[in-house]
Amino acid sequence: MMLHLDGSTVKSLINVQLSLHLSEAAFRLHSSGQVEQPLRTVIKGGDNALMGVMPAYIKSGPYQGFGLKSVVVRFGEAAGGPSHMGTILIYDEAQVTPVVAVDAGAVTEIRTAAASAHATRLLAAPDASRLAILGTGLQARAHLQAMQAVRPIRYVSVWGRSNEACREFAAWSAQHCDLPVSICTSAAEAVRDADIICTTTAARSPILFHADLPVRCHINAIGASAPGFQELHEDVYQDITLFTDCNRSVLAASDCVIKAVQKGLLPQSGCATEIGTLCKDEILQKNRGITVFKSVGLAVQDLVFSREIIRQWVASRCNGSSLT
């Protein structure tokens, strides 16, 4: 019988520090050529939804093996509700069964925020304390917690399309993160004095422009990960330093980067540095100005996280835990 690890089990087996380690491992595997993964296949549905299919093979190391993620993303779900529903299949996991199914929504939520936290740890100023979040859903919440793990966040501003959703986010933050949140009436207001900006929306047209940005900041742009979506206006990419999870994937799926290249704001080749090539002990935000980490999500992240979650589950069973 196939083992299935549901969302609550996934979240019980992994913490922020482990997530940071796994993010670094996944990006290093990718950037060192240890992963076979094609570009994501995206199928558009007729109900404001997309289906993504992401297979990969990790060639060597502790996370070696095949895996396949299939997920349906529904846009416009209520704030705090699940937008990603699907499964990650992990093959040849000899410790348990030949195939293990892991909840894709939970893994996506955790690994996406962890990727941004890993980039922030490398690229944001060490004393960055002012965080702006654009968006109010699960990724907004996950990013707030992830940013707290890597920088001394003391001030949070939020903008979203719904005032009610912003109020719910602020109440959640006060309860779970012990941080007051300033609710802003525009994205420009939210980011005005920010050290770190996280964009976590499903915007189909730009919500953030170059003129909105402070002189120095780090941006994690994660919400627009498929063609037809765009959070950052292409003019954001003038006079910035761009980092990505995967250059090839970003140039295929990120409308803002594609338009920036077309307009000559970014070079056609060598437009970005992959985060997996950076040294973990090197903090790069030294009078750099504005840095952007643009991520669209990689199958290698899902495989690394899922295999580690399976191992944590096996260890919990051996230690007599009641997890099922």
TrEMBL record:
One of its GO terms (molecular function) is hormone binding. One of its GO terms (cellular component) is cytoplasm. Transmembrane segments: none annotated. It comes from the Bacteria. This is Ornithine cyclodeaminase family protein. It comes from Pseudomonas syringae pv. syringae.
